[in-house]
Protein: tRNA(Ile)-lysidine synthase
Organism: Pseudomonas khorasanensis
Amino acid sequence: MGQSPIDLPSRLLLNLEPWRHATHWRIAFSGGLDSTVLLHLLVTQAKTESLPPLSAIHIHHGLQAAADAWPEHCQSVCHALGIALQVERVTVQPEASLERAARDARYAAFSALTQANDVLLTGHHRDDQAETLLFRLLRGAGVRGLGGMPSQRPLGQGTLIRPLLDVSRAELEGYAQAHQLRWIEDPSNQDHQFSRNYLRHQVMPLLGNRWPQAQASMARSAAHLREAQGLLNELAQIDLAQAQTSHNLAWLGVPSLELAPLAVLSAARQRNALGCWLEPLTRLPDADHWSGWNTLRDATADASPVWRLADGELHRSAGRVWWLSGNWLRAPGNGADWQAPMSALRLADNGRVMFLGQNPSGPLRIAYRQGGEVMHLAERGSRDLKRLLNERAVPGFVRGRLPLLFRGDELLAVANLPGLDGQVHEGWTLQWQPTDEDQGLS
């Protein structure tokens, strides 16, 4: 049996108890039933409870003519409740799935607006959770996807909370009718070309007629699967701890894992650990594209395999796998002359270089490896640069980016490589910071 609408306020506050001391509670307010009830509940509770400051945000996607009137409706509701409303207009990128594109645009706006210790609240409910589980099941999702929507997750600098996931849509309708609330009915919600609408209007009613507790049971299954995913995450952390070993190229600032500890695991544990490691870095590949990992893992020792993913590339070199994205995937610009007494030299798409100690004399320039370079070492004579890089197991993706210091045609130093990075007897070494701190990178 569902709980009565009168229980909603206490259940809502119980679910929000851990965030009672947040700086700000912002309600994602579409104007529909779910967010209207959530907004009304919170405003009502704020009259008798000590809650963080409340406000609302409405995202205007501009996808249909009817939506142009919704900001005005939302403003009217918020004005009546004494709540500030922020309207954000977003541009939805054309994609195969309009639903996904709209969601991406919406959450990008939410993320940008959610500051440290802020909470964004959405009105997702138990029926939404059941639809999510069924939708993802039909798409062949794994345990992670079938866990449905989490009740909380990081968003921007703050947290996204879904406090109504244990509440049915029928309960929300009962509350809205009891309090004579007005809400928007989105015409697109009746368009069955959208998969979720088809499930909501065609499939879920049939399931409910045969199994009245279907939605509650499906939401409960999603909770079990989230728990299972939690256990898989714990296993992944155990496996990753073995692969996150120290190495002499940590100064690159590139995420990497030692390959050998991963390679001895079962294929399923490899995918589990690697998926956990990659999740904050890129959209994960579907099952059919994990063969790229097998190819990278099994390539011969002298190969330089690459696995291209949605937001970057995984490279294998020097016994490790390396995650490259951003500037690492762009060839660095041309080198530059070094005008003394400049303390540091910024490089196009390649961080900056500086001298530790005094500056060497003479007209200096920074360039990149072209092939055939030779370096004179006091104790070894002239040596081919390629051989010197091989001896130090410098990964292939680094070699074309290593700043080389020349005086005329003489190669004086290779940044950051001990023994090659300067002239100790002259009191200087060449240091390279691969990422530019001015771009917000460490």
